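Reviewers asked in the last cycle whether our approach scales beyond single polypeptides. To address this, we selected a multi-component target totalling 435 residues and predicted its structure end to end. The input consisted of the following lines:
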Amino acid sequence: MEYYSKSFDGKKIIWFKSKNQYLILENAFSNLLIKCINGLSHEDFKETCMSEYNLSPIECIQLYRKCKEIIQDQDATSNFSKRPSSFLVLNYEMSSSIVYQWNAQRVCVNYASEKLKNLVHPKFHHLTHICDVERSIGSIFHVFKEDNKIVLSVDEECFGEWGFNEFHLFQGKFSMCMLNHFTRKKDKNWLATLHASAVYKQDSCLVLLGESGKGKSIATSLLLTNGYQHLADDFVPIEADSKRIFAFPQAVSIKEAMVNPLSKYFPQLLSSICKKKDEIQFRYLHPEINQLQIQKSKKCKAFVFINYSKGSTTKFSSLTKTRALELLIPDSWISPLEKNSMAFLDLILETPCYTLEYSDNSSMLKLIDQLMNNEL
Amino acid sequence: MKMRKKSNLKTKKSTENVSRREALKKFGKYATVTALGTFILLNPKQAQAASPGAPGGGF
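The resulting structure, written as structure tokens, was:
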């Protein structure tokens, strides 16, 4: 069984390669589990438990069973979904073709329908490039519908298919493919992509995390009015070699209710593309074009788990690493490669993590400034 | 009447608040093995995803 373990705060985190799963446990339990993985017999396990941890024979059996359950679960066949095999898409009629340019790279995306185009285009509209489609295009994407599924192919290789209720997975894969083609990198060159927003000042950046609707995008927009620059929104890539947060030029989505208050800083919001999801309308705040043409990566100063809560007083505190990992891991895509997974954990364990609950924008901005200026 | 009810409640609550050390004493080795055998299993997303609340639905 392939795994590695790391110690932090008197605990251990073990990563299992077979299912790309992480286990956080007490040091003592972790030592016993690792001994078990390495073939410790039931008798020796019992003896260790009784002599080192003063456990009763029944407790030893319970613990041994628990270890065995974990090991069996990790040994079970992985249920990773396999990428469907390659196929040609030349038979599909496309309704529109759009060329996007970033970082001097161009990608042409062919959409089979307006509905499919609306799933991703509004976030990349500002990268639209008018040129002769046949010339200097790096890659050609096709987005079409087959057997009631959304299909994405890149250079005639299928990259996945998703049901219409899984459109957020299609959007995520589309962003990943765009990122790889714009930066000439591959999945293995990334440690993770976070469901977060990132802004920067000089050479360091702040990553804002939190569940959907907790105010990440709004906080990002307000920070942009306060001397910070856009690095990424909703899809935050971490580069493998540098462990730095990489820029990704996807637009920030703003709920309609916030468009008017923000329009004095960003008048372009009033004329931006408007989309409706359920009963909520969104508009897109596109990063400034002159900021976009440069490939950027920034060192992460801190991870801040943000929570806008109407009427609350501002609360800012450090987060334990256990809690930070508990919040971060299930909400992120983390590279299944051992080297990358280790580097990802190193980054999280060495970077300060905080929680910030607020309702008053000016106190939130002040706190973020203090954090960035080492004044906290 | 209401006041008395409130104070009774408070008394009951305070007797239930035992420290970790007291709890360990009370439950002995069982508490020790429970704490020792506790773990958190975390599964990252198996694929990149956009925010589930992101606009784009409507199919």
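The first helix of chain B runs from residue 2 to 16. We regard this as preliminary and will revisit it once experimental data from Aim 1 are available.
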